[in-house]
Amino acid sequence: MEGEFLELVNGNRQRILRICRVYAWNAQDEEDLYQEILFQIWRALPNLKEKAHANTWLYRVALNTAVSFVRKHTAARRGTPVAHEQLHEMLDEQTDPPLRDPKIDSLYEAIAQLEKMEKAVITLFLEDLSYEEMADVLGLSSSHVGVLLHRAKKKLSLLMKEETP
Amino acid sequence: MNDDELKRLWRQQNLGSALPMPDAELVAQMKKKMRDFDRTLFWRDGRELVAGAVVFVAFLFIFLRSHSTLSGAGCVVIMASCIFIAGELFFSRRKHPAASETAPLSDYLRAELVKVKWQAKLLRMVWLWYLLPLFIGVELFELGFPEGLAGELFSLVFNLAIFGVIYWLNLYAVRKSLLPLQKELEDTLASVSESSPSANG
């Protein structure tokens, strides 16, 4: 099981980190969420029956964990939304400045302002999952995902236009 | 920016240097977390059962030495309450287990919502399934020791105050943590149904 776990985590570390960055408020939360996702993967790994679907399975575990994490921590943070400056600081702390595209900052800022389900669907879309795979992860029909994604993309585009000077 | 450009931008991110962790350390950490998790569950369940068992044994002991019918009846009610409460907690856990982390998101949210609603109901009704049987038992038990009207009135008021505070604490927990949690889950689920094709015509 250890080998399987390491293979899965190492092969998907970037994906997990991107989900953490979408849902966490700051660097510390990002690290906590990362640990929590790894723990849930470890816990749930014996239930992974079909290795062919490991990717969608992993997204499901990661998203459910992230949603739980946000819910648990929202009460403590109610009334203190993340300032854009804070988000910038967080990104500055964690990514090498020469490698970072400023468009990424505005993309994360725009995603941070989406509703929870829109955030989930747009993350899966950016991860290049098909409608069927997104539907599988989210537990919705493909047409439902289509509607949700259309709305999320529209909002994202507006938000990114606002962000761009 | 079109879809392909957005996806390309997304995948270009370099997060490689973030949170480095040697493999052996990672596995050891997961094993430790799993052990801690199992231990927490074990102690949480154990605490509830041990508390009930201690009360049960204490009142069984008193019952066997009791010469008062009322006190004896009080002991029996308290012991029966302990069994009933343990059963209720056991039944609740089996009926509403933790939502599976591997379930699709909407199923996961629905399962969480059902669980939170059930917990809120359980706490709101705590007077019925937890406090009332114990209160009746304690009152009967104390009536078996005549202390005079003033003494009995005092113990009645004292017990009412204690049980009242416990009830209030449970309602406070519902208001402070469970209802906001329920609202949040309902909002998230609503954002799914709002966007359903039928809702949008």
List the helices and strands and how they pair.
The complex is a heterodimer of chains A (165) and B (201).
Chain A: H1 2-23, H2 27-44, H3 54-77, H4 84-94, H5 102-112, H6 116-126, H7 131-138, H8 142-163
Chain B: H1 3-12, H2 23-65, H3 69-95, H4 105-124, H5 126-143, H6 148-194
Low-confidence segments of chain B, ≥5 residues, pLDDT <50? none
Helix/strand/pairing category of chain A: mainly alpha
Number of strands of chain B: 0
Strand content of chain A: under 5%
Largest sheet of chain B: none
SSE string of chain A = HHHHHHHH
Strand content of chain B: under 5%
Question: Tally of extended strands of chain A?
Answer: 0
> DSSP helix count of chain A?
8
Mean pLDDT of chain A: 83
Radius of gyration of chain B: 26 Å
Biggest pleated-sheet summary of chain A = none
Radius of gyration of chain A: 16 Å
Q: Ranges of chain A with pLDDT <50 over ≥5 residues?
A: 79-85
Helix content of chain B: over 70%
- Assembly form of the protein: heterodimer
Main interface pair? A-B, 64 and 48 residues
Principal-axes shape call of chain A: globular
How many DSSP helices of chain B?
Answer: 6
Helix content of chain A: over 70%
Class by SSE composition of chain B: mainly alpha
